[in-house]
Design a protein that fits this description.
globular, Serine Threonine Protein Phosphatase 5, Tetratricopeptide repeat, about 15% strand, six-stranded antiparallel sheet, Pdz3 Domain, 2-enoyl-CoA Hydratase, Chain A, domain 1, alpha+beta, six-stranded mixed sheet
């Protein structure tokens, strides 16, 4: 049968597409040769292996080396920026916030960085990643536009629901593959920042182009769904605008100064913002600054001191003792009088400050979990890779946590406070508001119960509990009496339907005094209320091991056996 003209044209088109397919599937470097990239990759790997104390804590050496070998074998498949992205994926396997390969940016002024020094330029400006005219942030699991160029001011506060055909949730997961981080908080911080890099979006196949980025948005003011196509910014310097709130919240007034303070007379509180852990030379030493500010608070009869660490990326860790010693020796070292505001940017030496505060003071934390793990790595060696000039940092020291076998990936707040897009758009600071209005419950047992009920974890409550045995200021250390106080708090929570924190408190009480049947019975009751038959049986068994003749426990054992 003869072939029609339409069929012939279709066959020619197919043959032409097949002819071009290998060409389109291979992307050669545009700036550096494959040999130059190979040398830089090997230099990167050698720096990690020679300096990091434990590069294979979160990945095996075999998997790390395999990722390197795969990249080296596929250099011809990628262009320059795609190679940079693949290199960043390898470094991200280490999962260490101080070990990082920075993306060179055309607009450094728009990017976020934990570093205390300015980024170095690559050897060729063509390696710089372009930027969108937006700054994004992940709030409550969703991606929002929090700053924009003047032309896009009307989109401030909008939720980004998709990049082209890629839902934002999926895009954030893909961005995680290149993020250096200690924990989830660092991850979402960096994911929000890097969502503004078109070259990265394209390399991760979030978008099909780096030149035109399609966004699906849900507008802040009316919830209207809109679709736009955005191009990267040009070479000219760019400034972004923020929402015009009625007032700038206190914590955003001065993020650049290492330290500053303000007396809040109406609220009878003294607010101190520490944006860097530093000695202060040649200006005011941190120890002197803290002494002076505490004296100001006392003279003004402030009832509490609030220290804001939400912009603190660290510094020189040895100076953190200036804060710890000043507070520990002051009348503000009392639960409810010394409050710390923390968040995803509380990192490095600031994270270590938190561990010292929880160890030696009565500090209570408000806000988000920190961006730093209590047990972490730092003090990185910084180099520029020879051919590309890419900025590489690799940790050299292990900063041990104060608790043995520390497994926390972050220091969590005693009182979690979510920061929403509504807060941002209206200029509210719910974290500071919570601290200003906070009144600590009377007694350590009540505080432990309050913190247990406020969180979905018990790390903070456990550390508070440990201070009962280590704080020399406690004069009445009667374990049985304290167990009774804990049981009373557990019963209050149980009556309110808060079975999980109540179970936790009952478990604490039986460890304090193993002769209290109500601790085991309460443990079993709350376990049953949570649908945990096995846990209830464990509670009864533990109770009968300690109190073999207790009738209530024997009756419950018989009931559970039916």
């Amino acid at each position: 049968m003869a072939t029609s003209i339409r069929e012939s044209c279709a066959l020619v088109s197919l043959a032409f597409a097949l002819l071009l397919a290998p060409i389109n599937a291979t992307a050669s470097p545009q700036v550096l040769s494959e040999e130059a990239w190979r040398a830089d990759i090997l230099e990167m790997v050698a720096t990690v292996k020679a300096n990091h104390p434990n590069a294979y804590l979160h990945t095996s050496e075999e998997d790390f080396d395999t990722a390197v070998e795969v990249l080296l074998s596929r250099l011809g498949d990628f262009d320059d920026k795609e190679i940079i992205v693949e290199m960043a994926k390898i470094i991200a396997l280490v999962e260490d916030g101080h070990t990082r390969l920075s993306f060179p940016r055309q607009h450094n002024e728009l990017g976020f960085s934990f570093s205390h020094s300015k980024p170095k330029e690559p050897t060729d400006a063509a390696l710089n990643f372009t930027s969108l005219p937006f700054r994004f942030s992940v709030l409550e699991g969703k991606l929002y536009i929090i700053e924009a160029s003047e032309a896009y001011r009307h989109l401030l506060g909008a939720e980004v629901t998709a990049f082209g055909q890629t839902p934002s949730e999926d895009a954030l997961k893909r961005l995680s593959s290149v993020n250096y981080n200690d924990n989830e908080m660092t991850d979402i911080l960096l994911a929000g920042d890097r969502a503004s890099l078109p070259d990265l979006l394209h390399a991760l196949k979030i978008t099909t182009s780096a030149e035109e980025i399609p966004l699906t948005l849900r507008k802040y003011d009316n919830g209207e769904a809109v679709e736009i196509i955005v191009s990267p910014l040009g070479d000219e310097p760019s400034a972004l605008v923020a929402p015009e709130a009625s007032a700038t919240p206190l914590w955003l007034i001065d993020k650049a100064s290492p330290k500053w303070a303000k007396l809040l007379r109406k609220e009878r509180a003294h607010f101190i913002q520490l944006n860097q852990i530093e000695g202060g030379m040649p200006d005011v030493m941190l120890a002197d600054f803290m002494r002076e500010e505490i004296n100001k608070a006392k003279k003004a009869r402030a009832q509490k001191i609030i220290i804001d660490l939400r912009h603190n990326h660290g510094g020189s860790g040895g100076y953190s003792r200036s804060v710890v010693n000043a507070i520990a020796a002051s009348p503000y070292n009392e639960y409810g009088k010394f409050l710390i505001l923390i968040g995803r940017e509380t990192f490095s030496a600031a994270g270590h400050l938190l561990t010292e505060l929880e160890q030696y003071t009565d500090a209570l934390f408000f806000g988000e979990p920190s961006g730093a793990a209590p047990d972490s790595y730092g003090d990185p060696k910084r180099i520029q890779l020879k051919n590309s000039g890419l900025d590489l940092r690799v940790s050299r020291l292990h900063w041990c946590a104060w608790r043995a076998f520390e497994t926390r990936t972050a220091t969590a707040p005693h009182y979690p406070v979510a920061y929403t897009i509504d807060d941002y758009m209206t200029g509210r600071d719910p974290v500071l508001e919570a601290a200003l209005t906070y009144k600590a419950p009377k007694g350590l047992a009540a505080l432990i119960a309050d913190v247990s009920a406020a969180t979905d974890h018990w790390d903070g409550a456990i550390i508070l509990f440990s201070r009962f045995g280590t704080d020399p200021r406690i004069l009445d250390r009667d374990l049985s009496k304290f167990a009774g106080e804990i049981i009373a708090e557990a019963q209050t929570l149980e009556a309110a339907g808060r079975d999980l924190p109540a179970l936790f408190l009952y478990d604490i009480a039986r460890r304090l005094d193993d002769a209290r049947a109500e601790a085991y019975l309460g443990w079993a009751r709350t376990a049953l209320a949570l649908g945990e038959q096995g846990e209830a049986e464990n509670a009864v068994k533990a109770g009968l091991d300690a109190l073999p003749d207790n009738e209530a426990l024997l009756d419950l054992q018989a009931t559970l056996a039916q």
